[in-house]
Amino acid sequence: MADVTEAQILDALQSVQDPFAKRSVVSCDMISGIAVKNGMVQFSIEIDPAKAGDYETVRRKAEDAVAAIPGVLSSTAVLTAESKGKAKGGTQGAGPKGGAAAGSQNPQGAGAGSGTSGAKKGGAAGIKHIVAVASGKGGVGKSTTAVNLALGLKALGLKIGMLDADVYGPSQPRMLGVSGRPESPDGKILKPMENYGIKAMSMGFLVSEDQPVVWRGPMVMGALQQMLADVDWGDLDILIVDMPPGTGDAQLTISQNTPLSGAVIVSTPQDIALLDARKGLNMFRKVDVPVLGIIENMSMYVCPNCGHEAHVFGHGGAKREAEKLGTPFLGEIPLDILIRETSDGGRPVVVSEPDGPHAKAYLAIAEQVRDSVLGGARQAPKISME
Question: Is the pLDDT of residue 124 over 80?
Fold first, then answer.
């Protein structure tokens, strides 16, 4: 079956009216970012962020209108705002469902000592340090490590937030055991979701769990900037950023436009994963982000019955790589069903088994990260590809 066309989508949206202009959202030039793949449709509705609360009904009607097109399997609309001074006004970026989407014109303003412009509340002004948890490739347990690191830092008495920057594959809502949609009392700033004392924001809160995000790069970048700048994070000692895997455009943009205090690299011990971990480490060095260290995840498998250690993916590779690259080795985390089950169940091992050996391993890593970053924040780096 042929994909639904943009013309069909725009024709369906002719039936959806702007409540203020009393004309269709199409004739008001409010539709942008249409993406269609395998019957799944996503698009943006550009609005005045000051009136975002009035457009939730419009968003739902637009989704329903597109969903009624033959061949459409799913329809997702987001409210967004642009920065080019049209009558709709606002700033650029893909906004969340059901909330306003005023984007940040100054994404480098995040971090310690920075402020937000105008009378706008919230944002990243109260965040002292931002730490990225990254991997050169997917499947190495980066998100599991990120959530347990965040909970470990919380257990050390710090105020912690979690930004799930993996737009295409958000994991933190499930791992933190949080569901629902964030509120926006003023129609501009989102309230973060919270569990276990961790404030969190993720694309997983803004679209259904089974809905793929098929946005192109600029929309992803806008969404990431907004999840940092348009969220009422309050005062945080450290914001953990669960980075997307790899070293592509999203990773470079986050590293360039966000004043990271440092980055933690997660890898498994085998050679192929270490090659990608090295790429991730070198990317951060290119943009002058300090690498706080490397974690070897799935370091070994310990039989729960006899206690025998099996080095499924090898052992010690990350430690040797850290020594070779001149960066700290933060520790080893075993391959254990308990870590997997507790993370999948929304009760990560640091909170579900706080006195167990796995929690203690994460806490030891958290202590090193805390000691590394509390020495001071840094300015947003200049990107360099020399």
Answer: no
90/84 Cα distance (integer angstroms): 8
CB of 165 within 8 A of CB of 243? yes
DSSP state of 222: H
Q: CA–CA separation, 111 vs 118, rounded Å?
A: 17
What phi-psi label fits residue 346: left (phi over 0), alpha (psi between -120 and 50 degrees) or beta? left
* pLDDT band (50, 70, 90) for residue 353: very high
- Report pLDDT for 206: 80
Considering only CA atoms, which of 159, 160, 201, 155 is closest in space to residue 178?
201
pLDDT in tens, 55-76: 888 988 998 999 999 988 878 7
Q: What three-state secondary structure class fits 208?
A: coil
Cα dihedral: 136, 137, 141, 142 (round 10): 40
Report how far residue 99's alpha carbon sits from residue 120's, in angstroms, rounded to the nearest whole number. Answer: 16
Q: What residue ranges in the chain does DSSP mark as E strands?
A: 31-37, 40-46, 74-80, 127-134, 160-164, 193-195, 198-202, 236-242, 262-267, 291-296, 301-302, 309-310, 329-332
Distances (CA, A) of 205 to 15, 102, 192, 237, 256: 28, 17, 10, 23, 25
Q: How confident is the model at residue 248 (pLDDT cuts 50, 70, 90)?
A: low
| Residues ≥6 apart with Cβ < 8 Å to 90 | 46, 47, 48, 49, 81, 82, 83, 101, 102, 103
Tokens 């436009």 map to which residue? 257
Q: What is the 3-state secondary structure (H, E, C) of 94-117?
A: CCCCCCCCCCCCCHHHCCCCCCCC
Per-residue pLDDT tens over the stretch 176-189: 999 888 888 877 78
| Amino acid (one-letter) located at 371 | D
Among 265, 192, 199, 190, smallest CA distance to 230 is for 190
Q: Which two tokens stand for residue 161?
A: 């937030």
